[in-house]
Amino acid sequence: MITRYTRPEMEKIWSEENKFRKWLQVEIAVCETLADLGEIPSEAVTAIKEKADFSLDRIQEIEEITRHDLIAFTTAVAETVGDHSRFIHFGLTSTDVVDTAQAIQIREASDLIEEELLNLISTVKSQALRYQHLPMIGRTHGIHAEPITLGLKLVVWYSELNRNLERFRQARKNLQVGKISGPVGTFSYLPPQVEESVCKQLGLSFAQVSTQTLQRDRHAEYLCALAILGSTYDKIATEIRHLQRTEVREAAEAFAKGQKGSSAMPHKQNPITCEQISGLSRILRGNALVGLENIPLWHERDISHSSVERVILPDSTTLAHYLTIKLSQVLQNLQVNKNEMEKNLELTGGLIFSGALLLALTRKGVLREQAYEWVQRNATRVWNQSGNFQQLILEDPDIKTHLSPDEINAAFNIQDRLKYVDAIFERVFGPS
Questions:
Q1: Residues 40 and 83 sit within 8 Å (Cβ to Cβ)
Q2: Catalytic residues, which ones?
Q3: 1-90 belongs to which homologous superfamily?
């Protein structure tokens, strides 16, 4: 497990101790159900619930001999129970316990992720409303395009994060499933009502049909949901990294007192957290691919998926949890440079209003291709030689025959370009 990025609450979920406790929880739930059905004595269940325990050292010691973790577990537990231990793992196969218990672990991990994701969404909403009307340049292909607001950039992220939340909730729901269907899914030893009762007791749904395992499309969907979530984080982090570049300097990560940016260059203030988010999100995408590779298993079961899930499920949930917290911190403390935003809006000498001029000319009856040529020839002069685009347009003999000075000046009104910002916000957040 990626321990460096693991918060204590997530580390506990994926600990060996918790894994075996979940296994024991499943085993006891089965015993309770079997006692209710009259399959095993009720006093046996009482004894098992009172006495059943294990030590990690003893499980490991037995596994050195058996080379089978579930058998090592049941043997270690049996030593603490005594005669009634014969009813532990009664009619079960290993994966009945392992897959069902793993679903509980994933549920616990998902609870932590969802809590932090809701906090992140709340942070983004707050910042979007804060900067709803702060103008900045919008860029396409990395090139200045037309004005937007910082709030619009944030509200796009807010909307995407909510889609991630919906996707994540659906994926976790499809994975909160247990199975107690036996060696090949035929309920050869225990009837279906045992599975239904046990899963209900554990707060899980039950698989409508399974083999010896839960089908791994469920796990792949979950890992893909985390990968998409991580890719959204990467997208946001990459945007902040670009805005922090020396040539842009419109927004940046907070730089803490005493923090150092470079061992060689004392002036450096680098976007290290956003770079970390971008880098670690690649692991989430890689793990999703492994999850997809786990879907095709041989016949009713093989264990090619089992070993890798011991890595990718703890790692992906751990990273998703960690990255959610880190991105929320970045956005809560985002440094916004309004002066640089204003300076960059003026950087091209008014070229960002070329689209408004094109539309104004076509409204006056000029063919679009002709209007495009007139506007572009002036824009090219400014692009190549600098100058004031608005002044060139006012002096252009073709354009001024169709547009008055007031009409030309109106095309350079930044607020006109942003007049529907509130309408967009109302679409996303509802009436204010």
A1: no
A2: 141, 262
A3: Fumarase/aspartase (N-terminal domain) (1.10.275.10)
